[in-house]
Amino acid sequence: MNTYFTEYENLEVHELMLRDRPRQEAYYNAIMKNKELFKDKVVMDVGAGTGILSAFCAQAGARLVYAIEASNLATKVALDLIEDNGLTNIVKVIHSQIEDFVLPSSAEKVDIIVSEWMGFYLLHEGMLDSVLFARDNFLKPNGLLFPSECTIYVAPCSVPSLYDYWQNVDGVNMGKFASKLRLQKSTRPEIIQLTPNDLLHEGIVFHWMSLLDVSTQELDEISFKEVVATQIAGKHQGFCIWFEVQFPGEESVVLSTSPLAPETHWKQCVVVLPEESCETLDDKSPVAFQILMKRSANDARKYNLEVELLDPNVEEHPVPCSCHMTKCILTEAHLKMMDTT
Amino acid sequence: MNTYFTEYENLEVHELMLRDRPRQEAYYNAIMKNKELFKDKVVMDVGAGTGILSAFCAQAGARLVYAIEASNLATKVALDLIEDNGLTNIVKVIHSQIEDFVLPSSAEKVDIIVSEWMGFYLLHEGMLDSVLFARDNFLKPNGLLFPSECTIYVAPCSVPSLYDYWQNVDGVNMGKFASKLRLQKSTRPEIIQLTPNDLLHEGIVFHWMSLLDVSTQELDEISFKEVVATQIAGKHQGFCIWFEVQFPGEESVVLSTSPLAPETHWKQCVVVLPEESCETLDDKSPVAFQILMKRSANDARKYNLEVELLDPNVEEHPVPCSCHMTKCILTEAHLKMMDTT
Hints:
6-stranded antiparallel sheet, type I protein arginine methyltransferase (chains A, B), Arg_MeTrfase (chains A, B), PRMT_dom (chains A, B), Hnrnp arginine n-methyltransferase1
């Protein structure tokens, strides 16, 4: 716990996040394009960091903002930021873990909770638990969460930076170097940016949740099993995982970390297949797999991620399934026929 | 010494270098476009790493290549690479520090030394000393060095990522955060990529050397004092330092790490000025400074870098000087007049 907050005192981590333009723009637009939701409201910013999101809320018209920050950024940075932007009457910077915070007995609960809590592949090294604690203890009934919904996607993919690039580096075959490199990296998923061309499928939803009603227990383990048909031919060398979060409001904003969206500091999370499992696939090839995202026993903020390739001949396919296996083609044709009659 | 070689066993460091396209292309072109220099020659690759440059030399027609690598990459990676590319008859991989290597008594000295030895701001964490040791002990008279010449440049610059960006982050003034960030970073130069627009001057040569005759002692301390006139107006917030290396041959190749060249893993080295020294300058403003690049007492591979701003009213300007000070305008006019008469 202490290490986590010490790390957040490293200003360079905040530099990275604050210079991540898609992240900044999503929060800015979500708040500023929905000012009517913030006007005269009481807001809580969970893990306020430098205080920038609290400043957005105040500028959007909030009456009172609690900027709760556990690290000493609260006193080292956020206080100054709030003062320098003339917002001390609105934003109260509180140096505390959210779990230790108590609202003054006379104070009302908050209308909106704002937080940028997302980690790699959404949950790893994130702080959603703290946001849910704040929701359960400090949010009014029918209060809003910014963001309010999250979706995690997965797609079979190529990983040229760990495979194909090394087959011919300026005329030299470095295949064995690449094998050793993959072995060295195989103990953890790769955080890298893929290009849209690397995806063999646009991505299917592997988990969706509404932050209004998800429980901490539901975050302990997320599993998913699916057969997906590739949409283009290509080398299947891994699984790419990314997330989107959605904000409430008429002008609904989505922050996407997809390979199709502008690069963010989260990039994507790629689980690379071992060499012997890689295959060159036609389009409409069925890929069967199972994902397990599980809270680490040693550190509740960390998540272990496991992907297992399954046999598409054995696993049950969805109905309809657009893969090229005879059974699925027949089922799809049958369903289509029923649709038109 | 040992730490240095252990670090090089980390394959991800090599991944970074091998995926640095300007670096790869410079060495590839320098060797492949000058095959006549390599044909039937004996080559030594100092700090061969994965062995890729040795492979280039063999493919360019060398008769014998000594691939000297001190880390266990020699046995873990380079041996395989040479074998997989069918070059075992030409390339001899030798797991040794160059300083411990002895040529067989019957063997001739080498015609060419190839090495990618450059560190940040050319010398920091580089291995030029080892290349010079190889030159002095193993290179034939009139032998060639790839690369053969190096130039270090400096230019006054703006550093928007540490200054201007923070004045207005989506409507929020984060000036004090930026001050703390700069303070945290002030103990070491920044390795960042600037854009051409950030330069207030195209860059002046602050050091040039030919690898054929430079001595190790000459590398202990490099100092430079100059008055340079800005070529465009802008905020002077730091000094940008970069290098170029040049290769021999009719098709002479230059590897540049300038902000005007495609980004490399070396990026540029920026010494950021303290806030009180920053100034908004007109074009033709004189900037007087002194640079000292000095080998660290504790670790000969490391270099300390110091830049001191001097008073352009006190320092002697070059002749001619294109700055807007009266004396320099008059001198320049006088010289021009003499030229035309």
